[in-house]
């Protein structure tokens, strides 16, 4: 029976750049910016790092393939460096590589870096991806953007729970409005302006039924984590953040090609959450989780995730949203840093940026956004589409 | 004994009122105005897809086991070198051990292809031959042709038994008549003046061909129930009938005011029309015109009623229309106007030809697989069964989805993804009998799409890579045509 990695690894340092349209900053500059902060935070030397994991999604516009761009940028001294990519969950995959390496006992201290220079693609929104899905899919996959793929989740959710487009969009608008309010309080966020539910409802349609403010934006950013064995963490700082669980789950193909899945939730999220809670020893997520960063690439993803994580009952997430359950001053603040909504989604970095917020919150360093006495933080990072995806769930605590 | 075993037709959904064309371009050419409307192929249709759509109608409830040849007829084939017939054969799931040929470069290609098919069956070389014609002729803005040309496909299955019409004989003339011409690589025709065309060619050759047919088959004009020939000029259309000694009631009603003049597919389209209105014992003469003329004589059998009952043909597609309300959309779809595609439209990833070849049945034939262990149909074809309770490896048989209907499980209208007919509508189809996949939708407006609606599959152009000259095809979902 595998024993999992609970409390075997701790995060002792993290860095996160300002996310935004960083026209004068190269991906290498972003890597260094995040790394320097993490290094100072951990109070270690670069050469203490024994292995590194590097997350970047779009190699062709970013830093290219292979992990050499990380080792060359940071001048890492001939240590193991691995590049990972798993669609939008790339950032969490980088962290997972570093954490599992330490948990295995192979290394004492590892580095995880994620970066994406999306503003160099020249696209509003993610680049046209028909060439990214494989040579056969390129010939058969529909003409669709990321908003379009997730819009289909909204269509099913509304249909299943009898929500008119107006009703459904209003709930989604509240989800986004809440995140924008939090982003105002975050100097590292890209978007720092409040947006009202009314403005969101009236915004231009991107992919029916998702409008402009239902979609996260395009940004540049990097984030970084330094992890070490739990039994040595306190020698670096009094408040290391311990990994309680890191799980991922990938679609089996049944959502896309079999007719059982009803299209109104993310099947892999449910399975991933079950394993993550088991590993972390959580039996009642609604009571035990203090705060979360979930993958709000689109407002519908966040709404459905509340249910997939077993926090809101099926079909009832809207009620929790209306009651303010997920607001910053609510029972389980979600996206306390503003989320993908306010940070944008530099793919390689997002998963690590989510963890950065949980880390700072646990250490009492979240400034204006500080949640009172958080105990357990959860990050949820999703890659792919509702019908073909991977979910990464990571649970941390002091 | 050779003849027609089955027939099918396809008229694109979009129809444009010619007043719209005239309002846009009448200032340039006020003399030209043909009344009525014409059929305009969607941006994702070409002459091959029109031919496949007609062939699909033609092959309803008929399997391809005896199809020994596939012929494609068009003067606007998308490739100068790469057989349209080969693409069509793969799309209809024909056997590979067949003859295939493209009949092209003339507007009588449709009838010539049909005659060649009848010859092959008569000679015993082939048991059945599929003849599929498709045409999308482009014309310059403000030209008379722009009003005249319409888009359509027609298909006939030729065979030696279970005939709906027996082939009685033919008569052809070949004349290098330069009424219009188009040099290799040119996008538009050139033509000489109309009086020359009408007097020296159109009226003359069709008359010549029909007279020759009557002599050869020893038949009088009054013994022919229906005569089919293209209508290029309304007045001269009637004149031809008079010259041959036909009563107006013997002439097929031309589709000029509802579809337009559809080039190589025109005579076959009207022949289908004649067949779907025919009764056993009727004699039908059909003429193709262009570089001369072909004329052929058919006699309808008792078998016509059974096939008639199960074909959409001209009659169904005539009524299945959507209004194309703007001239600008028509010329955008026909590439007459350069529009802003943005980076999303201009970034065209390459096509891996070896992948296409390996997956050609999947891509052109919408072929998936069905698990021999649990019976679950799945698309695309899988090696490992997708049924979570099964998971059998390597236990699959081919399974065709192209003729399956489904219900729309979910959908969206995407304003971000590039399409020449926005929004880009796509959705997940749950197929009748099993299987699920995500597809583009086409020929539909967002307001008319709903979860649970019935859909069927339509063969379309998926994308064109202009840089490398590649037309890639696949299937899209359309509302079921009732």
Describe this structure in words.
The complex is a heterodimer of chains A (398) and B (482). Chain A has 398 residues and is of the alpha/beta class. Chain A folds into 2 domains: 9-124 and 221-233, Peroxisomal Thiolase, Chain A, domain 1; 146-216 and 239-397, 3-Layer(aba) Sandwich (Peroxisomal Thiolase, Chain A, domain 1). Chain A has 15 helices and 11 strands. A 9-stranded mixed beta sheet of chain A has the order 3-2-4-7-1-8-11-10-9, sandwiched between helices. In chain A, strand 5 and strand 6 (210-211) form a beta hairpin. The longest helix of chain A is centred in the middle third of the chain and has 19 residues, at 165-183. Chain B has 482 residues and is an alpha+beta fold. Chain B folds into 2 domains: 3-333, Thiolase/Chalcone synthase (Peroxisomal Thiolase, Chain A, domain 1); 345-366 and 401-479, OB fold (Dihydrolipoamide Acetyltransferase, E2P) (Beta Barrel). Chain B has 14 helices and 22 strands. In chain B, the strands form 5 sheets. Chain B has a 9-stranded mixed beta sheet, sandwiched between helices. A 5-stranded antiparallel beta sheet of chain B has the order 20-19-18-21-22. Chain B is globular and about 70 Å long. The interface between A and B is large, with 44 and 49 residues.
Termini separation of chain B (Å)? 35 Å
User: Can you tell me the CATH superfamily of the largest domain in chain A?
Assistant: Thiolase/Chalcone synthase
N-to-C order of helices and strands of chain A = EHEHEHEHHHHEEEHEHHHEHHHHEE
Examine the coordinates and then state which fold CATH places here, giving the name of the CATH topology of the largest domain in chain A: Peroxisomal Thiolase, Chain A, domain 1
**Widest sheet, order of strands of chain A:** 3-2-4-7-1-8-11-10-9
Residue-averaged pLDDT of chain B, rounded?
A: 96
CATH class of the largest domain in chain A: Alpha Beta
For the record, the CATH architecture of the largest domain in chain B stands as: 3-Layer(aba) Sandwich
Provide the structure class of chain B.
alpha+beta
Low-confidence stretches of chain B: none
* Percent helix of chain B: 25-40%
Mean pLDDT of chain A: 96
Side by side, the strands of the main sheet of chain B go 5-4-6-7-1-8-13-12-11
* Radius of gyration of chain B (Å): 22 Å
Q: Quote the beta fraction of chain A.
A: 15-25%
Percentage of residues in strands of chain B: 25-35%
């Amino acid at each position: 029976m595998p024993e999992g990695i609970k409390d075997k690894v701790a995060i002792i340092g993290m860095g996160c750049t300002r996310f935004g349209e960083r026209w004068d900053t190269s991906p290498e500059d972003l890597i260094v910016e995040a790394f320097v902060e993490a290094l100072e935070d951990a109070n270690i030397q670069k050469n203490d790092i024994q292995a590194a994991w590097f997350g970047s999604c779009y190699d062709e516009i970013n830093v290219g393939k292979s992990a050499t761009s990380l080792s060359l940028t940071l001048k890492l001294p001939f240590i193991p460096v691995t590049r990972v990519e798993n669609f939008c969950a790339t950032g969490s995959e980088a962290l997972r590589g570093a954490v599992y390496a330490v948990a295995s006992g192979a290394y004492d201290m590892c580095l995880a870096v994620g970066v994406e220079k999306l503003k160099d693609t020249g696209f509003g929104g993610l680049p046209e991806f028909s060439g990214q899905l494989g040579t056969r899919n390129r010939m058969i996959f529909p003409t669709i953007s990321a908003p379009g793929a997730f819009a289909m989740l909204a269509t099913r959710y509304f249909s299943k729970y009898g929500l008119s487009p107006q009703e459904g969009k209003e709930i989604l608008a509240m989800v986004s409005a809440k995140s924008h309010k939090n982003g105002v309080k975050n100097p590292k966020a890209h978007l720092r302006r409040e947006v009202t539910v009314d403005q969101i409802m009236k915004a231009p349609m991107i992919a029916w039924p998702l409008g402009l403010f239902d979609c996260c934006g395009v940004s540049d950013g990097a984030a970084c984590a330094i992890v070490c064995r739990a039994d040595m963490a306190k020698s670096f700082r009094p408040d290391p953040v311990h990994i309680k669980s890191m799980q991922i789950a990938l679609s089996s193909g049944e959502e896309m090609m079999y007719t059982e899945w009803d299209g109104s939730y993310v099947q892999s999220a449910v399975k991933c959450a079950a394993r993550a809670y088991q590993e972390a020893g959580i039996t009642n997520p609604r009571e035990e989780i203090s705060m979360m960063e979930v993958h709000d690439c689109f407002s519908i993803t966040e709404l459905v995730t509340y249910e997939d994580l077993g926090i809101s009952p099926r079909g009832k997430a809207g009620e929790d949203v209306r009651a303010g359950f997920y607001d910053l001053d609510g029972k389980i603040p979600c996206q306390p840093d503003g989320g993908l909504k306010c940070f944008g989604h530099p793919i390689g970095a997002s998963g690590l940026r989510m963890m950065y917020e949980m880390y700072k919150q646990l250490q009492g360093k979240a400034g204006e956004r500080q949640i009172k006495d958080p105990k357990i933080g959860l990050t949820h990072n999703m890659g792919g589409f509702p019908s073909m995806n991977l979910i990464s769930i990571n649970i941390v605590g002091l | 004994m050779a003849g027609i075993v089955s027939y099918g037709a396809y008229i694109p959904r979009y129809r444009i009122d010619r007043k719209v064309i005239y309002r846009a371009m009448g200032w340039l050419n006020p003399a030209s105005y043909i009344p009525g409307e014409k059929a305009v192929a969607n941006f994702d249709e070409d002459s091959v897809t029109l031919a496949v759509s007609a062939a699909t109608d033609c092959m309803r409830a008929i399997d391809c086991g005896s199809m020994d040849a596939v012929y494609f007829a068009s003067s606007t084939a998308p490739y100068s070198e790469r057989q349209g017939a080969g693409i069509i054969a793969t799309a209809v799931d024909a056997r590979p051990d067949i003859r295939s040929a493209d009949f092209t470069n003339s507007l009588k290609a449709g009838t010539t292809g049909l005659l060649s098919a009848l010859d092959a069956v008569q000679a015993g070389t082939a048991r059945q031959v599929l003849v599929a014609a498709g045409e999308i002729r482009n014309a310059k803005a403000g030209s008379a042709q722009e009003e005249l040309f319409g888009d359509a496909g027609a298909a006939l299955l030729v065979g030696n038994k279970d005939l709906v019409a027996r082939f009685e004989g033919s008569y052809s003339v070949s004349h290098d008549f330069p009424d219009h011409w188009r040099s290799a690589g040119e996008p538009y025709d050139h033509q000489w003046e109309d009086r020359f065309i009408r007097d020296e060619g159109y009226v003359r050759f069709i008359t010549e061909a029909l007279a020759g047919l009557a002599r050869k088959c020893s038949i009088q004009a009054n013994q022919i129930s229906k005569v089919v020939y293209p209508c290029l000029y309304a007045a001269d259309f009637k004149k031809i009938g008079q010259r041959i000694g036909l009563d107006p009631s013997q002439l097929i009603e031309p589709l000029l005011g509802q579809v337009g003049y559809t080039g190589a597919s025109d005579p076959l389209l009207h022949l289908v029309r004649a067949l779907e209105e025919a009764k056993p014992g009727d004699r039908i003469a059909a003429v193709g015109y262009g570089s001369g003329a072909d004329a052929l004589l058919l006699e309808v059998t008792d078998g016509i009623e059974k096939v008639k009952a199960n074909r959409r043909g001209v009659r169904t597609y005539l009524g299945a229309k959507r209004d194309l309300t703007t001239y600008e959309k028509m010329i955008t779809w026909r590439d007459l106007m350069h529009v802003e595609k943005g980076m999303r439209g201009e970034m065209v990833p390459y096509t891996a030809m070896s992948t296409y070849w390996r997956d050609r049945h999947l891509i052109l034939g919408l072929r998936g697989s069905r698990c021999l262990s649990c019976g679950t149909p799945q698309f695309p074809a899988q090696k490992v069964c997708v049924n979570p309770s099964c998971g059998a490896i390597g236990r699959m048989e081919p399974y065709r989805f192209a003729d399956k209907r489904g219900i729309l499980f979910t959908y969206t209208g995407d304003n971000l993804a590039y399409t020449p007919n926005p929004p880009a509508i796509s959705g997940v189809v749950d197929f009748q009998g099993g299987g699920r996949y995500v597809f583009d939708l086409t020929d539909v407006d967002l307001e008319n799409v709903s979860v649970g609606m019935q859909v069927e599959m339509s063969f379309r152009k998926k994308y064109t890579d202009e840089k490398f000259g590649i037309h890639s095809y696949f299937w899209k979902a359309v509302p079921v045509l009732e």
